[in-house]
From TrEMBL:
Keywords: DNA integration, DNA recombination, DNA-binding. InterPro entries: DNA_brk_join_enz, Integrase-like_cat_sf, Integrase_catalytic, Integrase_DNA-bd_sf, Integrase_DNA_bind_dom, Integrase_recombinase_N, Phage_Integrase. This is Integrase. Transmembrane segments: none annotated. Residues 221-396 form the Tyr recombinase domain. Signal peptide: none annotated. GO terms for molecular function: DNA binding. PANTHER family: PROPHAGE INTEGRASE, PROPHAGE INTEGRASE INTS-RELATED. Belongs to the 'phage' integrase family.
């Protein structure tokens, strides 16, 4: 008997019947088990406080490494030293429902104990979306199921049910749109559940991830952009709405989105302390891609500088009804588009329009990615501080859209934009 290693477990041969074991020479009770099918599992065998022999699975070989399994075995033996029976803990985990596991995940994530992208705690905005998908789709369809009983077919079945509209809800009287189905919504719900199961398996909340390999539907890529005439119509709608009492903050956000290509969350949640008028950029403390510096054009900066300052609020676009930031720009955009017959427009359409106009003006894909905040932070910062080409691209794109919004359609056609 020698120390358990990857090479030794790789060499372990499957028996014709029953099961075979390979034990570690350094950590008593820690070993690997193989069954006739060839499945290899790390195990821990011990005697509890009642002197009963117990054996628990630590994880499947390949899903976790030998050293990870060894660490798990040490944790279990630590529980044993404190009078707890690791097998009893496993039995509790086996009885956990999907709803209970989701609640655990939300609590752990809110406390900063779930590590997400870039090895950082999951963001509040991401957690809010996860919670919405859990409450709207996951719990109604799978909440009562035991996690240990889940199979791939159950996950893909949930996906099909969401697409079919089984969790759809009508628009409520409060703010917010209707809950609908569709491949994109279904795929994101599956992704959230798989992420929860993955975190639970990694943190030993459940023995193994029960649904690895479930296939997610491909969402429909958003290609919609406003053409020259539609940008002009939107400008007309904004001027008409301004004369007829539309909220000026909402109008300012819609204009700013089109002039910058910012995400709606970035615009609505922008703080005055991040705005750098002298440099022509926004110094974001955080975005979907992390902390980031984003250049904007003069016309977009003018929108920000025209906003009245509310001393008690740190936001450029403060809420009228709370201490937070404004949140209803999307509804304003819908009203504007409906008033002039422009269909199928979302805040992302404005973002895609900005990138498309930059492409029409001849700027490269790498430059456009930097304009939209897709590039790595270091690349974006380098552009803003060193490369004047990015500033030129931002200014020209912003100016072109401003001209179109303000009715200069001839100038737009002269630049060769395609409708």
């Amino acid at each position: 008997m020698a120390k358990l290693t990857k090479r030794a477990v790789d060499a372990l041969k499957a028996p014709k019947q029953g099961q075979a074991f390979l034990w570690d020479s350094e950590l008593r009770g820690f070993g690997a088990r193989i069954i006739p099918s060839g499945l290899k599992t790390f195990i821990l065998q011990y005697r509890n406080a009642d002197d009963r022999s117990r054996r628990i699975a630590l994880g499947r070989f390949g899903a976790i490494t030998v050293e990870q399994a060894r660490d798990l075995a040490k944790i279990k033996l630590g529980l044993l030293a404190h009078g707890k029976d690791p097998a009893a803990e496993v039995e509790v985990h086996k009885a956990i429902t999907v709803a209970a596991l989701c609640d655990w995940y939300l609590q752990e994530a809110a406390a900063g104990r779930i590590i997400g992208r870039r090895n950082r705690p999951i963001k509040a905005s991401t957690l809010a979306m996860d919670k919405s998908r859990i409450e709207t789709h996951v719990k109604p369809l799978l909440g009562k199921r035991l996690v240990r009983s889940l199979k791939v077919v159950d996950i893909e079945g949930m996906q099909a049910d969401i697409v079919a509209g089984k969790t759809a809800k009508p628009r409520s009287t409060k703010r917010g749109g209707a809950t609908t189905g569709g491949p994109g919504v279904a795929s994101r719900a599956v992704s959230t559940l798989q992420s929860i199961l993955g975190h639970a398996a990694r943190l030993d909340k459940i023995a193994t991830h029960p649904c690895q390999g479930a296939r997610r539907l491909a969402g429909k890529k958003k290609q919609r952009r406003l053409n020259i005439l539609e940008i002009g119509k939107l400008g007309d709608a904004m001027r008409h709405a301004e004369r007829n009492g539309e909220n000026p903050i909402a109008l300012a956000i819609v204009r700013f989105l089109l002039l910058t290509g910012f995400r709606i969350s970035e615009a609505q949640g922008m703080r005055r302390a991040w705005v750098r008028p002298e440099g022509g950029y926004i110094d974001f403390a955080d975005t979907k891609s992390g902390a980031q510096i984003r250049a904007i054009g003069p016309a977009a900066m003018q929108v920000l500088q025209n906003q009245p300052i509310r001393k008690e609020s740190p936001y450029v676009f403060p809420s009228d009804i709370s201490e937070g930031h404004y949140t209803a720009a999307k509804a304003c955009l819908e009203r504007l588009c409906a008033s002039v017959g422009i269909e199928d427009v979302t805040p992302h359409t404005l973002r895609h329009t900005f990138g498309s106009v930059a492409g029409d003006l001849g700027f490269s894909e790498l430059t456009i990615r930097a304009l939209l905040g897709h590039a790595a932070q270091s690349v974006t910062q380098g552009y803003v501080h060193i490369d004047e080409a990015l500033k030129l691209a931002v200014s020209r794109t912003c100016d072109k859209i401003a001209l179109l919004l303000d009715g200069a359609k001839k100038a737009g056609r002269a630049e060769g934009l395609a409708a």
